Amino acid sequence: MKLFEGKLGWTLLFVLGLVFPFLATNDYMLTVMSTAYVFALATVGLNLITGYTGQFNLAHGSFMAVGAYTVGILTVDHQVPFWIAFIASGVVVAILGALVGLVSLRLRGHYFSIFTLCVGYIMFLVIEKWDSLTHGVSDIVGIPAPSGFGIVSFENPRPLYYLVFAFLVLGVWLMHRIVDSLLGRTFMAIRNSDGLAQSLGINLMRNKVLAFVLSVVYAGLAGGLYAGSVRFLGPDLAGVEHTFDMTMYMLVGGIGTLAGPLLGALAIPWLTQYLQFLQAYRFVVFGPILILLVIFLPNGIVGLYRARKSQRAKLATPKSGSVSRQSQPTRGDRHA
């Protein structure tokens, strides 16, 4: 029954994603949702290293920017076809992630987070200052849309929406396979206790680096999709605020769950859109809402659902003591 309910929920989300373009009243809504999907894909990757492995990477948004700039530089400056540049974005980020992971993952806890924060800022400075490579503050403009197949063209918002949606579905499915495998249980064992995991024969460094690389590859590919969707890039993409945004998505949806980061990444952007009528004051309203959510829903939306479900299950199950007392005959029954 639990498996059926899980499949039913995922099927509902999938169907809603398929029919959304027919419900959207304009192309702007499609663009907002496509961008939300891109950041959802990156957030799913951050959740792997943070929620499942217990290492908070504050350079995650910068890795996404590296993937985006890889696509932008190759397509605009070197006329490389989009899909080759897209694959290159994943490869470049994987190599960079392995190098950063080998150094940073020797640290633990907040020391690791502070180190990655510094790494992310270095990436931001490189993107902003290396004019001959990244165009610096002049931005990269004119990035081509993803190449179409046959009669399908991704120049228009609707086909581009379905392309990004397909990558998100594939990314979530692959993450489901990872976290439900022996490798995923290894990551969770490291999250729960380094010492216990090591005593079980788990190679801590190798598995932490692997989780880190898989995580940033998600960010790099999301960045490649972002470049093909938005079609221009600026250094601000490498700012730490994007990592904080993705962290917020995880906290609101439910960190360490598969559906939580996805729900948070889809809900929060739309909430900010609906608060735009407040202009600069919208964050005065939005900030306290997030604080209240973190205080009263520390496990996020998915965590609240699971707690309610567990509570209902306990109430529905009769206590063993009361059952045994009811089953025993009364004194009058025994004399009878």
From TrEMBL:
Name the species this protein comes from: Paraburkholderia sediminicola
Q: What is this protein called?
A: Amino acid/amide ABC transporter membrane protein 2 (HAAT family)
Topological type in the membrane: Multi-pass membrane protein
Q: Where is the composition biased (Polar residues)?
A: 319-330
Q: Which GO terms describe its cellular component?
A: plasma membrane
- Region (Disordered) residue ranges read 315-336
Q: Where are the transmembrane segments?
A: 7-24, 30-49, 56-76, 82-103, 110-127, 160-179, 209-228, 248-271, 283-305
**InterPro entries xrefs:** ABC_transp_permease (IPR001851), LivM-like (IPR043428)
Q: Name one GO molecular function term.
A: branched-chain amino acid transmembrane transporter activity
Query: Could you tell me where this protein is found in the cell?
Result: Cell membrane
Matches recorded under CDD domains:
TM_PBP1_LivM_like
Q: Which UniProt keywords apply?
A: Cell membrane, Membrane, Transmembrane, Transmembrane helix
Q: Does the keyword Transmembrane helix apply?
A: yes
Under the heading Pfam families, the entry gives: BPD_transp_2
